[in-house]
């Protein structure tokens, strides 16, 4: 983890862009489910987690997904979303292009699995509190959403790893 003093203004700007993209991918690219909706925001959260310093990835994910809950009409989920999406970034390791470490690594694939459990489990707990046992109806949809996010993350991450785009994120 980087010290606060090691994080430059460029990283904050990148985090702001990620927060906006997460908000759009969550609020506007969605499929309705039984207790909410499925979205593509998690793929962007995974990308933020490997391209940004951890504190900024957590903040961008929490703010972007929280804003999406407001826009999409699910304000009851704002607080749980902020917590869950921030926690979902923690298992990842920032890609270190100076040492030729890519986005798609075994460690980050394992991080996707851990993050999926955090996301689906966090929303199950939230929905158990809100809806009781009816929350179990949304669990398969939560895992489908997370799996789609993982697959999209792998596709985009692989493309970035093979391109010159990753030079932008060298610090």
Report on this model:
The protein is mainly alpha-helical. The chain has a single domain (4-169), classed as Arp2/3 complex 21 kDa subunit ARPC3 (Orthogonal Bundle). It contains six helices and two strands, in the order H-E-E-H-H-H-H-H. The chain has helices at residues 9-27, 41-51, 54-72, 78-88, 106-131, 139-161; strands at 30-32, 37-39. A two-stranded antiparallel ribbon has the order 1-2. Strand 1 (30-32) and strand 2 form a beta hairpin. Helix 1 (9-27) runs parallel beside helix 3 (54-72) and helix 5 packs antiparallel against helix 6 (139-161). It is globular, with a radius of gyration of 16 Å. The model has no long low-confidence stretch (mean pLDDT 87).
List the helices and strands and how they pair.
Layout: H1 9-27, E1 30-32, E2 37-39, H2 41-51, H3 54-72, H4 78-88, H5 106-131, H6 139-161
Antiparallel strand pairs: 1-2
Helix pairs in contact: 1-2, 1-3, 2-3, 2-6, 3-4, 4-5, 5-6
Brief description of this entry?
The chain is mostly helical. The protein contains six helices and two strands; from the N terminus they run αββααααα.
Described by the principal axes of the CA atoms, the overall outline is: globular
CATH level-1 class: Mainly Alpha
What is the structural class? mainly alpha
Query: Reading side by side through the largest sheet, how are the strands ordered?
Result: 1-2
- Total E-strand runs: 2
Subunit organisation of the chains: single chain
Question: What is the mean pLDDT?
Answer: 87
